[in-house]
Amino acid sequence: MKLIKLTKEYKDEYLEMLKGWGKVEDYKKQSPFPLSFDTSDFDSFIRQIEKLENDPDDHFVPSSTYCLLNEQGKFVAMSNLRHYLNDRLKVMGGHIGYGTRADMRSRGYATKILELTLLEAKKLGIEKVLVTCSVENIASNRTIQKNGGELKGTIDWEGRMTNQYWINV
Predict the structure, then answer these.
(1) How many angstroms from the chain centroid is the CA of residue 114?
(2) Domain around 11
């Protein structure tokens, strides 16, 4: 398996992943997770992702977007690594958001992409990473725990009970 930054060379693989993702609209609330961006002009889409990494606007912090390729070269998961936390991310969202396409779940890909994204956080000098997920998302809670997540607490975020985990990298 290989973690790569999303670039225009991977257009076909990314668009194929979206087909197997599931309900993309469920993730649109999680900006800057790139599923919320319009991919009809893929070059513009990639420029948006590059802008988030290098020069985000006032609503975002710098972030890097990664995709996980499985052994067959298929995009199976993606992650977004926020380089630091603003006030909102300290409560909800944390440093890393990740997800696995619906037709590839329960195969260990979420655990792997979180593991590899944690290594990218370490390269940025981030020593302690905050990762959050819904209390009800048993799979995500287990994924975070497998990667060393220690439960900090649970909060009510706009009616959704959310676990906050810290991971030492």
Answers:
(1) 8
(2) 2-168
